[in-house]
Amino acid sequence: MPFSNTHNAMKMKFKADQEFPDLSKHNNHMAKVLTLEMYTKLREKQTASGFTLDDVIQTGVDNPGHPFIMTVGCVAGDEETYEVFKDLLDPVIQDRHGGYKPSDKHKTDLNPDNLKGGDDLDPNYVLSSRVRTGRSIRGFCLPPHCSRGERRAIEKLSVEGLGALDGDLKGKYYALKNMTDEEQQQLIDDHFLFDKPVSPLLLASGMGRDWPDGRGIWHNDNKTFLVWINEEDHLRVISMQKGGNMKEVFKRFCTGLTKIESLFKTKGHEFMWNEHLGYILTCPSNLGTGLRGGVHVKLPHLSKHEKFGEVLKKLRLQKRGTGGVDTAAVGGVFDISNADRLGFSEVELVQMVVDGVKLLVEMEKRLEKGQSIDDIMPAQK
Amino acid sequence: MASTFSRMLMGRKTAMLLASLGTGALASGYLMSDVNHAAVIDRTKIFPPSSDYPDLRKHNNCMASHLTPAIYCRLRDKLTPSGWSLDQCIQTGVDNPGHPFIKTVGMIFSDIFDPVIKERHNGYDPRTMKHHTDLDSSKVTHGQFDERYVLSSRVRTGRSIRGLSLPPACTRAERREVERVATMALSGLKGDLAGRYYRLTEMAEQEQQRLIDEHFLFDKPVSPLLIASGMARDWPDGRGIWHNFDKTFLIWINEEDHTRVISMEKGGNMKRVFERFCRGLKEVERLIQERGWEFMWNERLGYILTCPSNLGTGLRAGVHVRLPQLSKDPRFNKILDNLRLQKRGTGGVDTAAVGDVFDISNLDRIGRSEVELVQLVIDGVNYLIDCEKRLEKGQDIKVPPPVSQFRK
Question: Which regions form coiled coils (chain A) (predicted)?
Fold first, then answer.
């Protein structure tokens, strides 16, 4: 429950400038925004569960910068964090989420029928399709701050809820600490298993405490719908399958999420959500939809083209290696997904991915034949 | 700065008073501000201690051996005057179930600390026994080793500055204060002890490389044992290395403890190493006392350091010694046990030996004074060298009788 920084009252004996972190070598959103004045004003505050400013920023202080991407450098310990520390988090959110203002409203749309197309991405290029998001259970602290008791309660509630899923969503829970060797190997082979975090970005926030207590993986029998419990968020929900039928992936995603939400409601629980920030998650980068929809796609020619980066930017897409966020691409295969999370609905984001990837594959085919792509360059979305 | 200092004095006086009542004394009325107190109380109602008790079934450390649900229930909601809780004490032990080579400590709070200390320190009972400090190096005899076997000699300990929180809990301001107090004192050292401070945040590439090559530089900790305790926060803010110009006396600032003090040199002159160690320590103590500071110490636990394994003297005196024959003898470990010595690889605590060179040092930290422990190492290493020479000549060796553990 209390983590290293909660003896906040004692710190008040020192002046703000004595406690202010040295951010001179830092390059993350928190360091760009946090001034001494802001630190002075916010250092006395804490949420009802005792989460303080230093708790919010510790990961950003300990990790000055990431080579591939600009990190956020702050985390929430509970739902109230985004309110109590808005002086810091609003500008961070604005910077990270393309100018999203404190007065802006976020729209949630999980109706898969609103997605146009998406069932015909060329499987010769698109190897797999996936949509993920996160959900937090209202009333509990988030992974950086939760106690063991809370984490276990979250696990119990989630497993009960998921246990009521039926049809093609029916599945089974594998608690990390009870897993047999064979189960573990199977989950690794299926690319489902998440391991104890090693990234200092995550560890510095406190979310690795007590591993593997209260952590586990649930998946349906078909292995197309998967939920991570108590990793970086309370729940991470993933729908995935081989090939390019993003429409099917998204339909299952929406159906599954909606069912899970109603199952929780029958037990008197709801997800953390508000109309300004959408779904509340641990990292400010995942606010809004928390949605990352993407494909693994072969783009050996296009990726070498000088305009590749520009095209992605115009399409509001992001590239990663096929090992996930901290990896580089291997063999011309890229993970392409939406860059935004907040300010666009789920349907809008997946639509961008579907339309964008269709165009990328088109460009790849052109370049294969030695043709130009100048006439199909997209406008800025 | 003066008003901060007087505020600090008040804080220190209170802390000193509580410290003199004995480590782990809990002033239950002296809690944090109302807001945080209320926050802690609400959550304790919803989640009783039993729901938070850690799952220690796969654990093998001293904390896990002694933390019963009853003790956890009794202590979970208590806080030290600076707001440190039981969960914070034990977090490293929960996160790190066990170490391949040694039984780790995993954890303030005497109900749990006293049995842990007793187990880790081979029976030393802080409730009934007293620890004796002795830094008079003139008492040590036979402290020159055969340099055909002993390659280097080293003595290290740690010191904490009373009134400031320890590395897992300290705030950035406290850590910077430790750095300021320590470096101010060190700048007063003279003669063969005169030296210079290298702050980690300002270190140039060449300096860094030089310090690495000389085996002086400590790097950001990677061991999960240390990181889980919170001592790596804000790295490298407030951290640095001081060493004398001769490079035989070295101080680490704000690594695992406020200060780690190291005296070392090539060769086998342990007596000189220990003499410089004692002289340097006493001089540093005098210099901080001039400014109104002192080291954390009490007669139950000796010098107070972050990890319970380093209580008492916090002293590890050792050599890098070649023992090609003896190390292959099946009685090697038993001999070490009886001499109350410990072997490590030459890379330090988490390494295995390379070639035939071992790091041999004292096993105990508390219950014997510094002089006694160093003498024990000297006598023990001389015995090992004697065994090695005998085996070289084809003679047989004897396992010595066990050395008595605590002073009588």
Answer: none
SS (H, E, C) B348-365: ECCCCCECCEEEEEECCC
The residue of chain A nearest to residue B222, with distances taken between CA atoms, is A200
3-class DSSP state of B69: helix
For chain A, say whether B176 makes contact (Cβ under 8 Å): yes
Which residues from chain B sit within 8 angstroms of residue A11, using beta carbons? 171, 173
**pLDDT the model gives residue A2:** 42
Cβ neighbours of residue B208 under 8 Å, at least 6 residues apart? B217
Q: What confidence score (pLDDT) does residue B3 get?
A: 32
Q: Considering only CB atoms, which chain A residues are within 8 Å of B84?
A: 7
- pLDDT tens figures, B172-200: 999 999 999 999 999 999 999 999 999 99
Exposed/middle/buried for B197, CB within 10 Å: 0-12, 13-18, 19+?
middle
- Which residue, among B47, B78, B85, would best test binding to A if mutated, counting the most A CBs under 10 Å from its CB? B47
Question: Nearest chain B Cα to A201, which residue?
Answer: B233
Please give the Cα distance from A345 to A115 (Å, whole number): 11
B103-118 mean pLDDT: 67
Q: Is B29 annotated in some ligand binding site?
A: no
Tell me: the pLDDT tens digits for A269-308? 999 999 999 999 999 999 999 999 999 999 999 999 999 9
Q: How far is A14 from chain B, CA to nearest CA, in Å?
A: 7
Nearest to B338 by CA among B376, B378, B375: B376
- Ligand-binding annotation for B349, yes or no, is yes
Contact list in B for residue A61 (CB cut-off 8 A) is 233-234, 237
pLDDT at residue B45 above 50? yes
B142 is in an annotated binding site: no
Angle at B313 between CA B309 and CA B318, to 5 degrees: 85
Q: In chain B, positions 50-109, which contact chain A (CB-CB < 8 Å)?
A: 51-55, 58, 79, 81-85, 87-88, 91, 94-95
- Is B317 marked within a binding site? yes
Distance of CA B336 to the CA centre of its chain: 21
- A245, two tokens: 């039928």
Would you call A19 and B171 a contact, using CB atoms and an 8 Å cutoff? Answer: yes
Burial B268-289 (b: 16+ CB within 10 A, else e): bbbbbbbbbbbbbbebbbebbe
Instruction: Give me the interface pTM, i.e. the ipTM.
Output: 0.78
Cβ-based contacts under 8 A for chains A and B: 125
For residue B79, the chain A residues in CB contact (below 8 A) are 7
Secondary structure class of A177 (helix, strand, coil): helix
A217 three-state secondary structure:
strand
pTM for the predicted model, two decimal places: 0.82
Average pLDDT over residues A222-238: 95
Is A191 annotated to bind ligand? yes
Q: How far off is chain B from A218, nearest CA to CA, in Å?
A: 21
- At residue B93 the predicted structure's pLDDT band, cuts being 50, 70 and 90, is confident
Chain B residue nearest residue A16, CA to CA: B173
Per-residue pLDDT, A3 = 52
The DSSP letter of residue B187 is T
Distance from C-alpha of A286 to C-alpha of A283, rounded to nearest angstrom: 6
Statement: residue B161 has pLDDT above 70? yes
Pairing between β-strand A333-338 and β-strand A292-298 as defined by DSSP bridges: antiparallel
Amino acid at B212: I
The three-point CA angle A74-A78-A81 to 5° equals: 55
